[in-house]
Specification:
This protein is an alpha/beta fold. The protein has twelve helices and 18 strands. The chain has two domains: 102 residues, Enolase-like, N-terminal domain (Enolase-like, domain 1), CATH 3.30.390.10; 261 residues, Alpha-Beta Barrel (TIM Barrel), CATH 3.20.20. The strands form four sheets. Strands 4, 5, 8, 9, 10, 11, 12, 13, 14 and 15 form a ten-stranded mixed β-sheet that branches. Strands 1-2-3 form a three-stranded antiparallel β-sheet. Bound molecules: (2S,3R,4R)-2,3,4,5-tetrahydroxy-N-oxo-pentanamide and cobalt (II) ion (CO). The site of (2S,3R,4R)-2,3,4,5-tetrahydroxy-N-oxo-pentanamide (EZ4) has 10 residues, from loops. The site of (2S,3R,4R)-2,3,4,5-tetrahydroxy-N-oxo-pentanamide has 10 residues, from loops.
Length: 401
């Protein structure tokens, strides 16, 4: 079997997605996701202009060789554009391989290591009362784990909080919007939110929270300590993680479990975090180099008691979600999977076989990863420029969004 062609499809059924479709001379094709939120066209160009010509004629079963060819062969290693392009190729090739062997993708990984993939949903509100209602709504839908985000008085346009009745979607059309930040107001507020959530729902539901890279290590240490009585499943992205050593400060002060890594794209981003056991969950997704990369990183993390908790926001297309579920169900050190359901339009453009039942997602049982692309429908949703917001402190200083 040989790769005969490949093409990149950019569409925007409510938000932008970049999809790679690889064809073979046997008629089997595979799909990979290359959506880099806010910088989509850079990956589309990287793939179409520089990667696709190198794929033609190769054996699609050689996932390891092709991964190394693109990683080592690029000479300029790492980075989100390169690694997301490699990820799209890798996931599409695993899809082809599983389809050609007529089996669901998980059977080429470890096979089923559990009966379902525990997910956490996103609850948010402008006030504590609204957030309590939203967490309750998720519990009614049988979620076992819920991430809670809440508006903080005095801070406009906060990460994770919807401004309308739709689920929270950070990317906005047009140029980047600006939100306001105060670590002081945030630190003062968040422990009360979780105190009220535990009062309302008791200890059974797993509660999670995303700090979204906005604190310094000592501030994160303070928050982790303050949240200890409320037993979070994890505190996510407490600080920006370029400085891996910064997590030593957080770790030595608190027993609140720590998760990080949704923007990582190689194992080097978390090597010290893992070997020094500074985190509990690694949030890297298939976007960071695909299945070939994530399998190795997960095996390395497992030696240090770090579990996988893959990113699963709506800017990862249903292709990434569908493929991630095969990884999640087959890897031994699985922790939890983020699940933010896509819009109806997106789900129509990407016909898929995965399903949610009582707090768990189940991968498709059809050959491959089980997610397809309706190209005719995708054409009706052309690319629309969109950006993630930026964040400023109250005095105007640029901060981490
Ligand atoms: O803000 O994927 O945990 N989830 C997140 C996401 C990220 C988006 C950015 O594109 O932090 O909502
Ligand atoms: Co996050």
């Amino acid at each position: 079997m040989k790769i005969s062609d490949a093409k990149v499809v950019v569409c925007s059924p409510g938000r932008n997605f970049v999809t790679l479709k690889i064809y073979t001379d046997s008629g089997v094709y595979g799909l990979g996701d290359a959506t880099l939120n806010g910088r989509e066209l850079a990956v589309a160009t990287y793939l179409a202009d520089h990667v696709v010509p190198c794929l033609i004629g190769r054996n699609p079963f050689q996932t390891e060789d092709i991964w190394q060819y693109l990683y080592r062969g690029g000479y300029w290693r790492k980075g989100p554009v390169t690694m997301m392009a490699i990820a799209a190729v890798d996931v599409a090739l695993w899809d082809i391989k599983a389809k050609a062997l007529n089996t669901p993708l998980y059977n080429l990984l470890g096979g089923k290591a559990r009966s379902g993939v525990m997910v956490y949903g996103h609850a948010n509100g402008g006030t504590i009362a609204e957030t309590i209602d939203e967490v309750g709504r998720h519990i009614d839908q049988k979620y076992l784990a819920v991430r809670a985000q809440c508006g903080v008085p005095g801070l406009a346009g906060l990460y994770g909080v919807s401004t309308d009745s739709q689920p929270y979607e950070p990317a906005q059309k047009g140029l980047p919007s600006e939100s306001a930040w105060s670590s002081e107001k945030y630190l003062q507020f968040v422990p009360t939110l979780f105190e009220e959530l535990r009062k309302a729902f008791g200890e059974d539901v797993h509660l999670l929270h995303d700090v979204h890279h906005r604190l310094t290590p000592i501030q994160a240490a303070r928050l982790g300590k303050a949240l200890e009585p409320f037993h979070l499943f994890w505190m996510e992205d407490a600080v920006p993680a370029e400085l891996q050593e910064g997590f030593r400060i957080i770790r030595q002060h608190t027993t609140t479990p720590l998760a990080v890594g949704e923007i990582f794209n190689t194992v080097w981003d978390s090597k010290l975090l893992i070997t020094e056991q500074l985190i509990d969950y690694l949030r890297m997704s298939l976007h960071g180099g695909g299945i070939t990369a994530l399998q190795k990183i997960a095996a390395f993390a497992d030696m240090y008691h770090v579990q996988m908790g893959c990113h699963g926001a709506t800017d990862l297309s249903p292709v990434t979600m569908g493929a991630a579920l095969h990884f999640d169900i087959s890897v031994t050190n699985f922790g939890i999977q983020e699940y933010m359901p896509h819009s109806r339009a997106t789900l129509e453009v990407f016909p898929h076989g995965y399903r949610y039942v009582n707090g768990y997602l189940h991968p498709a049982e059809t050959p491959g990863h089980g997610v397809d692309l309706d190209e005719a429908l995708a054409k009706k949703f052309p690319y629309e420029r969109a950006y993630l917001p930026v964040n400023r402190r109250l005095d105007g200083t640029m901060w981490n969004w």
